[in-house]
Task: structure prediction
Amino acid sequence: MTIEHQERRRAFGFVTPALIWTCAFFLVPFAVMVLLSLAHLEGREIIQTYDLDNYVKIFTEPSLFKGIVVSLEITLIVTVISILLAWPLAWIIATQVPQRYQRLAIMLAVLPFWTSYVVRSYAWALVLGQNGVVMQALIGIGILDEPIQIMATRAATIIGFVHFFVMLLTLTIYSNLIQLSPNYARAAADLGASGWNTLRLVILPLTLPGIMTGAFLTFVLCIGDYITPQILGGNNELTMPQLIMLQLGRRGDFPMASALSVILMMLVTLAYAATARWLKMERV
Amino acid sequence: MKRVIQFGTGSTLAVMLSSTALMAAEELNALVWCDHTDPALLEPFETAHNVRVNVKEYEGTAAALAILDQSRPGDWDVLVIDGVDVGRAVDEGRLAALPADQLPTASFFPEVVMADNNTRDGVTYAVTEKFGYNTIAYNKSKVDVADMNDMSTLWGEKYAGKIAVYDYYLPLLGLVGLEQGINTADLDSNAVEGMRERLYALKDAAKSVSDVVASQTALATGEVDIVIGGGEWLTAVLSAENSDMDWLVPEEGALRWSQSIGVLEDSTNKDLAVEFVKYITSPEGQARLATSSCYWAMPANAEAGAILTDAEKTALRWDEQADYLARTQLYPTPDADLDLAMQDLWTDMLQQ
Result:
């Protein structure tokens, strides 16, 4: 046996526990879920069939299909807003804050991570309410005459999400920015580029791995989140995770919940395919 | 596939319970509503019997029966279930006979003994433990109380955007039916479909469709002034801090809910499970259950009144029960198909 073979076998030995773990806790449950998504609920009995009726129903039943549309709309809006807010914040921390204070600045930026996700969502419910801080401040400074409804709307869900995901994106973009050599900007300036053009044509493209990694994580976490839309959205429109919970918690319809979950995973896979060329972990 | 789910559920339950197995000589596993998760309710029984009571919350009878279907026989000992659904559970052979002579039903409010539901052929399978109302809860400093007596005003402009709808399809469809003059016992698929536009209009007038906690929060913070489907279970906890939180039964009537408790036929610990049922229906257990942390409501056993404080009885409207019991109807009792149709309508309404 050659040394190369021995090393390959040893490497395989190291990987084996992770492979077993992935098979046992991801691939096998996923296969079970796919099989279950092809079954039917008759009365309360799950009948194992092998057809696509549940999937057909999801795309033909308006209330179910709307769940996909609502989830995608909210996720895309949250991702775009979070990028637009996180990039300048990360750039300021990476380039304008003295290096010795950068760690503190990042820590402050991610401070809300330290609180429970559920508690943070309920806190937003109180802040955005009719008698909440935001509304009272807007009335106090004369922008509004009377409270408007933010709580229990899509806007409340988006605000709750953006608050969380800006922190995440700031981290990935900052990690990318501090790896960029200052020579890129100097070279651009030597070649006559203005500061704006250097930012737009040099720095921004070089931070795409950080942006896309954060955007992908935002997409995955946002589209699969149940808590924020449930607490802040007021059940005025249902996202896919809320529909899945309805199938499980009320109807006991595991096949339909599985079919919705499979579609959710397919959307995540599509998001991965769309961003894969930028997902270079060594750059973030 | 069913075996795979049963294995998964069983394994999860086994892992969940194994960590507590060494803490008490015996264990009792109960499938319950959230009011049974209050440690103040469970601890006296656990101490008296040196037992650990493991509780799992569920929402809606369909979900409870699905959990039972997907569990192994013997996984669960006690079931708390909607009073109107006891018959379903008995038909399916889920519940064991209870020793009726050891249960204090003689001291219950007569209207909530509900022998038609809890017994079959002279055998008692469950016993009512708590009841209350799905009706109109409101902040009386923000609304005209006279308006609350007429349910149809809630569809008008006056309170648009100031209403939360309790997110539970059975009592809410029952209430919408009552507003349209349909008794809950007469709700069939045609009647339910006929309520579609009225339900959508209610959603338009409402600010949110919320669960227990969100409804309470919305009413307490002034986000909404009215909760349709609310009742003492929603306002009693809040009224201690804000006496403006109130509720009434409107002219059209309202829904009366009741929950029953029984022992599962497959239980391997029936004697202890019966002891738990006896504890819950005793005056002491009833007083604790009536004021448990998740929600308050009337105890079935009238002798609990001797233990509850005057303030607690006032919050529960103890003295007005005769009138309320006479003017309220039981939940709809849909069969499996109608139940799914009602849930579909509810989901459609949520997505409007």
In short: Residues 189 and 337 of chain B are 9 Å apart (CA to CA). The interface with chain A takes residues 1-2, 4-5, 58-60, 62-63, 65-67, 69-70, 161, 167, 169, 207-210, 214, 217-218, 221-223, 336, 340, 343-344, 347-348, 350-351 of chain B (CB under 8 Å).
